[in-house]
Amino acid sequence: MSKRATSNFLRENNARQVWHPMAHPNEMEGTPPRIIVSGEGVYVTDIDGRRAVDAVGGLWNVNLGYSNEAIKQAIAEQLAELPYYSAFRGTTHPRLIELGHRLIEILKPEGARRAFFTSGGSDSVESALRIVRQYWKVRGQADRVKFLALKKGYHGTHFGAASVNGNSNFRRAYEPLLPGVHHLPTPFSYRNPFNEENPARLAELCLAAIEDEIKFQGADTIAAFIAEPVQGAGGVIVFPNGYFASLKALLDRYDIPLIADEVVTAFGRAGEWFGVRLDGVKPDVMCIAKAITSGYFPFGACVVGEKIESAFKANKDALGAIYHGYTYSGHPVGCAAALACLDETFARDLPGNARTQGDYLLEAFRGLARKHDVLGDVRGKGLMIGLELVADRASKTPAGKNYMTAIAARSYDAGAMIRTSGNVIILSPPLILSREEAKQIVEAVGVAIESTSMSPAQ
User: Fold this and answer.
1) Structural domain contains residue 53
2) How far apart are CA 407 and CA 425, in angstroms?
């Protein structure tokens, strides 16, 4: 075993040779990131020995916490048996076959038929975009190349995935992106261009805008519509009841496939096994990753339904060959980890616990909002919680960057690792969270708000 680096070495070299994702290199070098050295249960410990509830859950993905021995054992056994083999044409391996069967069985209510394995969420979205483009070519409708998406949606960082992102922060530095992508209003009650607070009426207005865009672009030019069942990185935006089902019905009228981006919501995060089950929707394509291995191994999948599968089955020429894939598609270790995660998720009823603890957190933070005007909006579904902080509640003026940075630091000092995105605190703790651990998150955020004053510059 190689010699471990000393604490002094780690501190001296922190952010010196590495560019960190979603951060300015100069900012990271000036204020080096926290060095997390260990994890146990829902807790993480840093290099200085400080321990905190990981209210971020890694990055939405560590549903089963950091101490799951079943996953670790499955990984170790697979490494000993077959650490890697390709799933490209002509070869496969046992775990891939087992996982494919298991996943399609679980997704029977959604009408899933085939799984294409990837290395993560951005890969899964990129695969979905490619597959639906190819689907229309196989069907002889090569003009259907455009994509519709929602503003505030987040779908990853690959070129296609970034193109369908609905937030300019993830787009502007890399434009021009994929042409033919059009973004529509999100039914977000707290902030929307219609100034409409009634959820049902807002859903109607947003759906009307989508239908108007379909007619303007021409349905026969649109490849697919991509959306998250609950928007995650965009600020934890929960759609009005029935919106996703109405969206699917609208798209069906124009024969436009729905790609459900379940990278965050799959496997219990939103309080159901899959986010589409909140509205009983059967998407044409699903993108999954993150919790499929609870973060223990980079892995994901793109799952297609009967409509997509049947077009490829009917094809008799090379156009139906899937000339797309990754070196690590269906990686044996990833498949083994995923199988163990599925067993553990069923055994522990993680979706049920997400509902229970999520309801508690929402109620607790709404109580906190009654005491502190800085908490402009509290929203969420399951263990997806968004706390929107404002400088003025009446005008909804967003809290500034310096204030949000201070809130994150003080929450951590009080015992909870949180994540901020713009003026929103995003909470996505492991789904094994207990009531006491949930209380610790609320108390830590409360301490941070009470101890942080907002200056005009913030």
Assistant:
1) yes
2) 9
Cβ–Cβ < 8 Å for 303, 103 = yes
Q: Which two tokens stand for residue 185?
A: 């209003």
- 219 and 127 belong to one structural domain: yes
Domain boundaries, position 50: 34-67+349-451
Amino acid in the structure at residue 188: F
Q: What would the two tokens of residue 143 be? A: 């003009």
CATH number at residue 44: 3.90.1150.10
Q: Which of 348, 375, 399 is the last residue of a domain?
A: 348
DSSP result, 147-167: EEEETT----SSHHHHHH-S-
Question: Which DSSP category does 259 fall into?
Answer: E
Residue 324 and residue 300 share a domain:
yes
Q: Sort strands 258-261 and 285-288 into parallel, antiparallel or unpaired.
A: parallel
* Strand order across the 258-261 sheet: 112-118, 300-305, 285-288, 258-261, 222-227, 146-150, 181-184
Is the pLDDT at 71 greater than 80, yes or no?
yes
Number of folded domains that form the chain? 2
pLDDT digits (tens, 9 = 90+) for 96-142: 999 999 999 999 999 999 999 999 999 999 999 999 999 999 999 99
CA distance 226 to 40: 36
Specify if 363 maps to a domain: yes
Per-residue pLDDT of 270-301, as tens digits, reads 999 999 999 999 999 999 999 999 999 999 99
291 and 364 share one domain: no
Would you tell me the crossing angle of helices 435-451 and 401-413 to the nearest 10 degrees?
A: 130
Write phi, then psi, for 230 (nearest 5 degrees). Answer: -135, 125
> pLDDT tens, 12-52?
999 999 999 999 999 999 999 999 999 999 999 999 999 99
Give the separation between CA 103 and CA 335, rounded to whole angstroms: 11
Query: Which among 348, 369, 391 is the end of a domain?
Result: 348
